[in-house]
Amino acid sequence: MKQTDFPKVLQGTVGEGLEQRGITRREFLKFCTALTAMLALPPSMASVMAEAIAKARRQSVIWLSFQECTGCTESITRSHSPTLETLIFDLISLDYHHTLQAASAEAAELARTQAMQDNAGKYLLIVDGSIPMGNPGYSTIAGISNYDMLVETAKGAAAIVAVGTCATYGGLPKADPNPTGAVAVSDIIKDKPIINVPGCPPIPVVMTGVLAHFLTFGSIPELDDLGRPKSFYGETIHDRCYRRPFYDQGKFAQTFDDEAARMGWCLFKLGCKGPVTYNACATTKWNDGTSFPIQSGHGCIGCSEPNFWDAGPLYKALSMPVSATASMLGAAAVAGAAAGVAITWHNHSNKASAKAAHEKVTPQELLREDK
Amino acid sequence: MNHLDLLTFARGDALNWALILFAAGVVLRLFEIFGLGRKADLAKPRTNSPGSGWRTVFTRSLPPQGLLKREPVTYVGGYVFHLGLFATILFFAPHIEFFDDLFGISWPNLPSALVDASAVASIVALCVLLAHRITNPVKRMLSGFGDYLAWALTLLPLLTGYLAFHHLLFEYTLMLSLHLFSVELLLVLLPFTKLFHTFSVFISRWYNGDIFGRKGTAS
Asked: Does residue A9 sit in helix, strand or coil?
């Protein structure tokens, strides 16, 4: 198959593309203003961002999917009817994404290698899914193991965006007992800037926000110690939750959808992990700003945190023990009692032998001392 | 290990072991104390004082006359600390959830702000009592390592809990883990330090009341 058979990467700028699609400058500026706010940038940066994105050439993006459920792709591409966010997605050059691309088999793989060649050192690599290290055969694409494909593709990337908790921290495949030996992108690639966008799945606008930042500044946003953009993962769900005042007042829902839950009382007792989960759900929300899990009456399960699946039962309050039980305490008490009996017996036998060894002072001994 | 992993360990294996050592330790110490026994008192009781031991259990829980004037710091500090500690442990909603999960019993909680005030009162009382212990010559002479250890073991859970609640010093998940670790340290050492008075206080009060009753010094 000749390379000319593949659709050529559009050479126009994002601005041109937006114009062609009938997006007005006003709408585009509004979008950039929202993004700058979310990225915690000064308002004046909105026009700078609009300018930079409009002038930018369509960024070549290679998207690799490994051990994943396609939820991340679903979230980003099909979360709601087309908006400017999804259009921005159209306007990057998504050169390889084996769920979305039309090409298949050899043609698909050629698209990847072609993009890698044409944009060496400049393309953005997006990864969703974890990488199995137990056996290369656990997950392959076109006969290539996930590990080999990641290492090969990462070499020429300008930066890597790990999307979803599987790619960022191992996610569900890594959950105990981790049968495939799943690891995160950052466990393998050490020499490239990696932006972690965790979540199961991550919020679409977080994704576009990170891309916009990259297009505007040519660099990655400020990250926290887990590699997440601080602007989106800087605060806990709990601290931004509209139910938070009820936590402070000690008012809690007792069961799902009870009167208290409907009145907006805190879901802490139902197992909400909001206090230890850093994400933007409570502020940006989902489905075009409609709602987020806590608003619909279900506690946060902490899906954007590493190893959240193994962090205790989902429906146990955060202050509850993970596995301790009263019977465990009872067994310990019985063992303590047995040890106590042994010590008591030891003390008594000590006392008895001391008593037996006790010698009374005889009058003769006293006389000897007198001398 | 990230902060959430640390918290999971603190809520999981670390807590399990702390609870096991605590339960075994408490029962062991009780067996040890009761197993020591006392020699039979062959002397005739000086006064006939039935129930003196039980009476003492209650009367010594109330402030004796004149103590407020003589030892105001110990008196006020002691009550404020203990009541604040009980309110914090027993009436903070997340704490009740802990007991509910472990023993299947729960009770109404206090508003978090009130529990917060109780914790602050307890922490302040502990600090004042420590200062008094160091500055008062009699108390200083009577104090040994065990006393300061007991003080530190009690302060740590209160302080880390306060810092976690207010999102101070460290990131919340880490601070919450440290809070749990401090509680676990307290649980493990409680049976083997002066903090065992949590369990032995009424036993010793009964014994004192009873023996003094027999000797003619009714409580």
From this structure: coil
| Measured torsion, CA atoms of residues B175, B178, B183, B188, in degrees rounded to the nearest 10 | 180
**ipTM for this prediction:** 0.87
Integer Cα distance of A91 and B209 in angstroms: 86
Instruction: With beta carbons less than 8 A apart as the criterion, state whether A188 and A152 touch.
Output: no
Q: In the structure encoding, which two tokens stand for residue A300, read together?
A: 């946060």
Q: Which residues contact B77 (CB under 8 A, 6 or more apart)?
A: B125, B128, B129, B132
Q: Which chain A residue is nearest to residue B172, measuring alpha carbons?
A: A276
CA distance A207 to B201: 60
- Contact flag A306-B104 (C-beta cutoff 8 Å): no
B196 to chain A nearest CA, in Å?
Answer: 15
Say which DSSP state A324 is in: -
d(CA A319, CA B165): 12
pLDDT tens per residue, range A9-47: 345 677 877 777 777 888 888 878 887 887 778 888 888
In the three-class reduction of DSSP (H, G, I as helix; E, B as strand; rest coil), residue A121 is classed as coil
Token look-up 């914090």 returns: B88
- Mutate which: A276, A318, A334, vs B, most B CBs within 10 A: A276
Which amino acid makes up residue A154?
A
Question: Of B4, B36, B95, which is closest to A307 when you measure between CB atoms?
Answer: B4
Of the candidates A222, A218, A201, the one whose C-alpha atom is nearest the C-alpha of residue A39 is A222
Inter-chain CB proximity A333 and B29 less than 8 Å: no
Report the distance separating Cα B72 and Cα A371, nearest Å.
59
Chain A contact for B168 (CB, 8 A cutoff): no
**Integer Cα distance of A154 and A162 in angstroms:** 12
**Nearest CA to A141 among A199, A64, A221?**
A64
B:131-160 residues touching chain A, CB 8 A cutoff: none
Judged by a CB distance cut-off of 8 A, whether residue B3 touches chain A is yes
pLDDT in tens, A234-286: 999 999 999 999 998 889 999 999 999 999 999 999 999 999 999 999 998 88
**Is residue B191 reached through a cis peptide bond, with omega within 30 degrees of 0 on the bond before it?**
no
Contact B26 A250 (CB under 8 A): no
Residue of B nearest to A303 (CA): B4
A340 vs B12, B32, B167: nearest CB: B32
Spell out the alpha helix ranges (H) of chain A: 14-20, 25-38, 45-55, 71-78, 84-91, 105-118, 146-154, 164-169, 171-174, 185-188, 204-217, 230-233, 237-240, 244-249, 259-262, 281-284, 326-357, 363-370
Structure tokens, B3: 């902060």
C-alpha A14 chain-centroid distance: 30
Q: Best mutation site among A251, A267, A322, A350 for testing chain B: the one with the most B CBs within 10 Å?
A: A322
